[in-house]
Amino acid sequence: MGKTHGVLPLSSAMFYILVALADGERNGAAITNEVEDLTDGEITLPPGTLYRLIKQLVVDGWITETERIDDDLRLRYYRLTPRGREIARAEAKRLNDVLRVAQMRRLLPSERV
């Protein structure tokens, strides 16, 4: 694994974009819908925000862009790179650690069975 120091924590929107791509490639509209579904509508990504973040993620090498023709429309699809998956995993671990501390301090209920 490479270094993740200095890139974490991610913004919620950026993290959820990476999570939305964890199962496979998606176009912008599908990413937006997936993020809204995952967050029960708490995070919405207007097109300007979505594509600004996507552009940054491509520049950083965390996602890559592909083009496909669907029903005579040229659509851009995006998928995680190995580096993007590494960053998403590191952020998920960081968030899990935060949750564990909050539970230890009784700020949230523990999920003990």
Report on the structure:
This protein has helices at 12-20, 28-38, 47-60, 82-104; strands at 26-27, 63-70, 73-80. The chain has 113 residues and is α+β, with helices and mostly antiparallel strands. The chain has a single domain (12-104), classed as Orthogonal Bundle (Arc Repressor Mutant, subunit A). A three-stranded antiparallel β-sheet has the order 1-3-2. Helix 1 (12-20) crosses helix 2 (28-38). It is globular and about 55 Å long. The relative contact order is 0.17.
Identify the strand order in the major beta sheet.
1-3-2
How widely separated are the two ends? 33 Å
Strand-pairing-aware structural class: alpha+beta
- The CATH architecture can be given as Orthogonal Bundle
Q: Figure out the total of helices.
A: 4
In brief:
This protein is of the alpha+beta class and 113 residues long. The chain contains four helices and three strands; from the N terminus they run αβααββα.
Task: Pick out its properties.
three-stranded antiparallel beta sheet, Arc Repressor Mutant, subunit A, 113 residues
Topology (elements, then pairings):
Elements: H1 12-20, E1 26-27, H2 28-38, H3 47-60, E2 63-70, E3 73-80, H4 82-104
Antiparallel strand pairs: 1-3, 2-3
Helix pairs in contact: 1-2
